[in-house]
Amino acid sequence: MLQVDEIREIIQMVDKSSLTEFSYEANGAMIAMKKNTGSTTVQTQPQVSAERQAPVMQESQSETSAQTEVKPEETSQASADYDYEIVSPMVGTFYASSSPDSDPFVTKGSTVDSSTVVCIVEAMKLFNEIEAETNGEIVEVLVENGELVEYGQPLFRVKKK
């Protein structure tokens, strides 16, 4: 997946060029840009498939067989603990609080309703508040503060009430 800085650089190059459309696909992700009267629009669409797992499986057969044996146990335990996942609606940087010295919006055990802000995802210098969209209790925080997240990546697991 491209880093945010790389995406910004591509946007700047397309904006300065005479191109009106640009698309790029790599590592299971696609970026398409189209100039519209001087502005540039970015759309990303992840392609979740075995493509992402193929490079990992080529590393060593003993490692991958151990990983595949552990995964079914983890998923069966995790599925009993939560009913809903709050996912990232965009590619960007995850922030657990509104400022570095503030407390996180939510932590494990926090009760949320559909309008509770759970985090901020920064995408291209825009800070987007992400709401829970469900009622329940946060049972797991899946990402670290300052971590780059992808479109559709689970951020929190919620046990609905």
Notes on the protein architecture:
The chain has 3 helices and 11 strands. The protein has helices at 4-16, 50-57, 61-81, and strands at 21-26, 29-36, 39-46, 84-87, 92-95, 111-112, 117-123, 126-131, 136-141, 148-149, 154-160. The protein has 161 residues and is an alpha+beta fold. The model is unreliable at 47-79 (pLDDT under 50). It starts with a helix and ends with a strand. It is elongated and about 55 Å long. It has a 4-stranded antiparallel beta sheet with strand order 4-11-9-6, with no helix packed on it. Strands 8-7-5-10 form a 4-stranded antiparallel beta sheet, with no helix packed on it. Strands 1-2-3 form a 3-stranded antiparallel beta sheet, with helices on one face.
Roughly how many Å apart are the termini? 36 Å
Number of strands: 11
> How many helical stretches?
3
Query: Biggest sheet, in brief?
Result: 4 strands, antiparallel
List low-confidence stretches: 47-79
- Helix/strand/pairing category: alpha+beta
- Alpha-carbon Rg, integer: 19 Å
What is the strand content? Answer: 35-45%
- The helical percent reads 25-40%
Mean pLDDT: 76
Rough shape? elongated
| Spatial strand order of the main sheet | 4-11-9-6
Helix and strand run:
HEEEHHEEEEEEEE
Key terms:
161 residues, alpha+beta, four-stranded antiparallel β-sheet
Please write out the topology.
Blueprint: H1 4-16, E1 21-26, E2 29-36, E3 39-46, H2 50-57, H3 61-81, E4 84-87, E5 92-95, E6 111-112, E7 117-123, E8 126-131, E9 136-141, E10 148-149, E11 154-160
Antiparallel strand pairs: 1-2, 2-3, 4-11, 5-7, 5-10, 6-9, 7-8, 9-11
